[in-house]
Amino acid sequence: MAWLYAEYIADELLRTGQLIPPGTLEFRAGREALALTVYLSDSTDELSGVGVISQLDEWLSLTAYGHPWEQWVRECFAARADRGDGGPDLELARASWQWLESTELLATDLGGTGVEAGLAARDDDAATGGGDDGPGLPELADLVDENARVWLPAWQLGLPLGHLSVHLF
pTM for this one? Predict the structure, then answer.
């Protein structure tokens, strides 16, 4: 029952955030990633209404950019296996994790945009005094080519959606 409740919480948070239409693979990726965060962060398997509100900050930190979420998920599964935790909730969570790992979604390439190169060029111009006589470098947002697409594991797209949904709640 704990897994189903975690999925319900994740679904409600994503629907409230209205970031992506329900029924899409992206929505499912966000729901599954957020449900895993909710489920694995609750060691008692007894989420309650009050517990949900008190854990929002924890879920924000677990889903934040730069947090080793994938490693955290693996460690939580290993810890539950060491404790002998099992049952249908854990099996549903493992199935969700397997789906998030094995399903790939086509998304904008935010990692290979040359942003670091653009920032390095800006720093070089400032250090050498150059770049004052012509138009400046484009804004950071202009460096992202939204047409460049890459295949990502579903969790890499779902995790930021889950984070934003918790933040908007």
Answer: 0.74
